[in-house]
Amino acid sequence: MDRKSSQGGHRRADRVKKRKFRGNQFTSEEDTSFTSTSATKLKKTEDEEVIIEDNYGYCILEFISVFTALTSLVLCATCKEEIKFSRTASRRLGFKISLQCGCDDVTYINSSPFINKSFEINRRIDRSERRVSCASMEARTARKSERASENSQFEVEEGTLYEAGIAD
């Protein structure tokens, strides 16, 4: 007998190898003894919200929902009554927040830093709009000059086609 036939016949070329056992797919992983210590500590913590202390920056928020929640939590230091938040002096995206309580003291807080006669957020938006408009103006100028150079090439070609003796 020959060596190949002694193993039980010829193997087919398209036969797939047997898959290895990778564990029971129908059981849940409740045994965490194989995980690392840090993984078990992270699993035990109940904090889902990560607090990021980014004290300076801009964000967009809905005024009513945020400040009604703050109203229920904040009390005046002098009269111990609830503080009422309202929005005043709106200038585009910048505005002032007024704080009113029972002791008739009204305090105003700017929503962003106030530089000369404008809010900083408005200046930043104006600057970015100018940059975008300058870039689009430069692109329009470049396209216009390309078209002009193409038209000048056609004019030169038209002049060479019709010379003095051919048109008569």
TrEMBL record:
Superkingdom: Eukaryota
Record-given protein name: Uncharacterized protein
Classification of source organism: Eukaryota, Metazoa, Ecdysozoa, Arthropoda, Hexapoda
Annotated region described as Disordered, given as residue ranges: 1-32, 143-168
Basic residues composition-biased segments: 9-22
